[in-house]
């Protein structure tokens, strides 16, 4: 008899985000959600903004909130897919971290300094970006500039045609 492991149900990103938000709020952190996963069309949020902005409690005994926001991008376990080159660039520049579980989110907010990836599957970051993040940053910058030039060219051609 051959045993087949039971299939693990694939979690959706918005379900994972809800679990992370619930865990952070249960620990007393103030959480702002920047995503609009129920909304159709553009969300009105600039490209590169992470899913969550968290104002952590000071965990050295002072119950007051600390005075700085930390960004969290929620990604399901597996290969990371960025919503835009601007988002990937913001991550490469250390603007936020990527987390893949409620435990990782709480642990990072309460115990970590500045890391660009903090999750259950560190191999996702390595597979996505390779060993040279500086090189990847340069490639993303070129991709963003090419896209901006394409948009400018389209606007200019519409003006000439109109």
Name its key features.
alpha+beta, 43% helix, elongated, four-stranded mixed β-sheet
Topology:
Layout: H1 13-26, E1 30-33, E2 52-55, E3 70-74, H2 85-92, E4 97-99, H3 102-111, H4 122-129, H5 133-161
Parallel strand pairs: 3-4
Antiparallel strand pairs: 1-2, 2-3
Q: Return the average pLDDT rounded to an integer.
A: 76
Quickly count the helices. Answer: 5
Secondary-structure class: alpha+beta
| Helicity level | 40-55%
What spatial order of strands do you see in the largest sheet? 1-2-3-4
How much is the radius of gyration in Å? 19 Å
What does this structure look like?
With 162 residues, the protein is of the alpha+beta class. The chain contains five helices and four strands, in the order αβββαβααα. Strands 1-2-3-4 form a four-stranded mixed beta sheet, covered by helices on one side. The model is unreliable at 1-7 and 113-123 (pLDDT under 50).
Short description:
The protein has 162 residues and is an alpha+beta fold. The protein is 43% helix and 10% strand.
């Amino acid at each position: 008899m051959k045993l087949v492991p039971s299939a693990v149900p694939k979690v959706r990103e918005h379900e994972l985000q809800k679990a992370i938000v619930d865990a952070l709020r249960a620990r007393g952190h103030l959480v702002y959600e920047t995503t609009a996963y129920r909304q159709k069309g553009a969300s009105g949020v600039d490209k590169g903004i992470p899913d969550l902005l968290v104002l952590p409690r000071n965990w050295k005994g002072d119950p007051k909130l600390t005075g700085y926001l930390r960004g969290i991008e929620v990604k399901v376990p597996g290969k990371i897919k960025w919503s835009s080159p601007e988002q990937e660039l913001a991550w490469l520049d250390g603007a936020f971290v990527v987390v893949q579980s409620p435990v990782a989110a709480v642990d990072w907010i309460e115990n970590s300094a500045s890391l660009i990836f903090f999750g259950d599957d560190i191999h996702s970051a390595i597979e996505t970006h390779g060993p040279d993040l500086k090189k990847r940053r340069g490639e993303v910058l070129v991709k963003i500039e090419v896209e901006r030039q394409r948009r400018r060219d389209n606007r200019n051609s519409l003006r000439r045609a109109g």
